[in-house]
Design brief:
By secondary structure, the chain is of the alpha+beta class. Among the domains are: about 230 residues, Aminohydrolase, N-terminal nucleophile (Ntn) domain (Glutamine Phosphoribosylpyrophosphate, subunit 1, domain 1, 4-Layer Sandwich), CATH 3.60.20; about 210 residues, Rossmann fold, CATH 3.40.50. β4 and β5 form a beta hairpin. α16 crosses α17. The longest helix has 27 residues.
Length: about 650
Amino acid sequence: MCGFAGFLATADQSSDALAYSVRKMIEPITHRGPDASGTWVDERAGFALGFRRLAIIDVSPAGHQPMRSASGRFVIAFNGEVYNFENLRDELEPHGAVFQGHSDTEVILAAFEQWGIVPSLKRFVGMFAMAVWDTERRELTLVRDRLGKKPLYIYREPGLVTFGSELKALFAGPSFDRAIDQEALSSYLRYLYVPAPRTIFKHARKLPQAHVLQLVDPGAPLPAPKPYWSVRQAALDGLANPLGGSEEDRLEALDGMLKDAVRCRMRSDVPLGALLSGGVDSSAVVALMQEQAGRPVKTYTIGFADESYDEAKHAAAVAKHLGTDHTELCLTGTDTHELVQRLPGIFDEPFADPSQLPTLLVSQLARQQVTVALSGDGGDEVFAGYNRYVVGTRVLPRLNRLPGVLRRPIGAGIERVPVAAWDRMHAMASQFVSRAPMPHFGERIHKIGQVMHASSIGGMYQSLMSAGWQRPEQIVRHQAMDEPAEQLLDGEEPGHLLDRMMLVDQMVYLPDDLLAKLDRASMAVSLEVRAPLLDHRVVELSWRLPRSLKLRGQVGKWALRQLLYRRVPQSLIDRPKMGFSVPIDRWLRGPLRPWAESMLADATRERDEWLDPAAVSRGWKRLIDGEPAAGLSIWAVVMLQAWRVTWRI
């Protein structure tokens, strides 16, 4: 796991000048690779490539990058891991490949020479971003892995293309125009992140997941990136070719695939552990790890003083049953003050998923003992674990049948009843049916009210996904926004709504929110995190499973649960889903209030060119008055303002 940056320019520069410029680009991403650095330049082409190394596989100098292929044709800087490199090495050696070390980077280069770049990518199992320079064709190839686990940013202006693992590397490049993309700003305020391929900057882009961008001339417009794999096509192919056999046969096939996905991610030349929340996903990963490990796996958990968000005791129970070497740390609102001030510098563009806080802290905790950790990320999106899938499949089609002239007033009426009142009514009703109240019931009912304002099922699901400002036009001065995901949600393929919801989450929410959060938070402390549930082979297999093995009744991740129950008692696992989040509304009203108010000061003044100060003031008042739903909306604005201060935007 590492970081890289580089550029291709038309301006004549000496080798020394190129090397100096690229060293400046990799300096801000030292945290991604504190163990070593390197540069490589092609003076005639105006190309420079820089690398920061976090040594994981072959920690010797033989694994150093940028690395040149045996023939000298290809030069690579590579962030991530190719887990099946040993099998590929066995395939390549009969073709004459000779290896000096035992790194996956050397195997990647040999594969490029033997099979070509794109055919090789289709053979790789892993997470990666790559910059590959073809010295013969003077061609730059930029690559991102299938699910978008590793980031890759690109900036262009006439005569210059820069690229890197983080935007801060591009900031430090030869040139960078910080003009803001207003459409990206609107999307951020609605979703708490900027969906790809946009970034917050008008002239910078994210390379989409599973795409390749090849370019020769930095003076020409960027060519369109091309896919070498497609999660949408994987879904359609899987649905058209369902896995045969009995239900038990299908579970066995999934069990075998998950075992292999975990096993290959346990390969490391440095200490390894796991992030354990105590939920289904991370517990399944840790159970499979412990099954294949020769000693207790080191596991790490973050707990919360607020019991409604705390899963630490559940994680501890799972860890005890499995026999792991478990470490736990409790996060309080007071602890967050130092953490929140680091976030804008870590994420580079506005990002406001509040689980960034515990993700950063658990990464920091794990890094004290290990350099690599496995996580359960991806289980909800791949195996249908979200409550919104239950709501979506059962409720959205019914709501859509209501005429808009009726639906929207009903939704407005639901929203007028305070969240606390809905919670009280639900608690009273629960007593009559002898059932525990559903956590955050009032917030969920309010969400249904908001959903009813949308004009289609696609719009309704996007509303469910809108964690911040449901209607950004209420706060952004120059609002503009498109919703490409709505087209897929309202389309005809895949035919079932559950499949379309999961597909949109795998294409957008997963790479642009969850995986971006995981990468930045973990790499900020030089920790490599691997996600076996997002092995592309697991994803492809999941699409071949019947929907009943994902969502059965109101129980999501049904198949994954059955496999986990073989290893962990069901009583330790089955409980209402909590999610890895924090009581951000209470923290903003409490220990974070002085800092938040200082961040909002400019946003509530008429001179702000981006936001409507009256809308910000109203949102802050709703939060202070105790409305929980206002927490994420205001957190989005606070994090935007903190980002502006940090980066002087």
